[in-house]
Amino acid sequence: MDLTLARDHSPEAAALPGMSLGTVPLTDGLSAEALFADGCRRVVFPAPIAPLTDAAVALRALRLIRDLTSRAIAVTWRLSFEEVEDWRDLAHLFPPRNAPDGWRSDYQFGHLAERRGPGLLQIRDRRRPGLRRYTLTDPSDLAAVAALTPGCAATAVPETARDRLAALRLVLPVGNGLLWLPYRMRRWPDVR
Question: Residue 144: is its pLDDT beyond 70?
Answer without folding.
Answer: yes
